Amino acid sequence: MSAQTTTGTAGNRTDAPRSAEHGQAPLARRLFSGAMGRNLGLVLALLAIVAVGAATAFGSFMTFDNALVILRQASIIGVVSIGMTFVIIAGGIDLSVGAVVALASVTATIAAVQDVVENTHWIVTVVIALLVGLGAGLINGIVVAYGKVAAFMATLAMLVGARGLAEILAGNRTLVVSDRDFLRAMNVDLLGVDLLIWIFVIVAVGGWLLLNRTTFGRRTVAIGGNREAARLAGIPVKRHTVWLYALTGVCAGIAALMYLGRTTAGTSTHGTLMELDAIAAVVVGGTLLAGGRGTITGTVFGVLIFATLSNVFVQNNMSSSLQAVAKGVIIVVAVLLQQRFAVRKGG
To answer: Rounded distance, CA 312 to CA 161, Å?
Structure first.
């Protein structure tokens, strides 16, 4: 009797640590599958890339000037990626952002617009680029929401159409920006940091506030999580979808202005394959392609990871082809991790 009691007690003692371990495992999963855990993983990935850069090209990589170069390279694609984050969180996709960037840059630099700018103010260039981006986004949104065309096909059509229209307007030429005041304004340094970087920061902060502190952001997540449930809850899903694509279009217009400031010219080749880079940054940043989850912070880290990786390859004189392979591997790993955490959460 005593032996049985002792055995039972011992069994209980043996089982106690196992129960604790089983209790701790789900907690760890919840931690690393949450927003904080995902962002921590992105920070570690970024630090690992920085460590490789420091080890292979310390003298040129670990400098303040090089850090600004990385941020400058990340700024334009970063602005587009912020807009893309909203669309993907809502369960959509926008393949047209690169072509819209090209169309906006060309439209803002055609002769008629530059003549108006010469007689008025360079702010006209800004307004034109933003209106082109907004218009393209609204068309995408209306076709997707009210035309009930799949987002992939609707934005693919815009990609082809916008790029073609940009080529027609530019006459397959590079249109040089003639207004020097605009170029000076776009290349000013604030506190020793390029204006392009400040624009990225402002758009990122604005995007974070919009997603996390407004009804617009909550509705975006709700639509991505369950579109029908969002509609039944009284959310104007179609109208909201239109504004999501309009937001992405405006971000493309801002990116076009940044291109004009950096290259001093508008061309139909601006933004080539930018949509793929933006989607990659958003997905690596932890936003689900299926919608319903995502963060602006994660997207910023995703953009910085790819920009830093590109800089490491350049510093070590490595081929762009190898860089593309590395990007592909990172994207696949990110998607696999998303699926793994989604399965665990569902289980």
So the answer is: 36
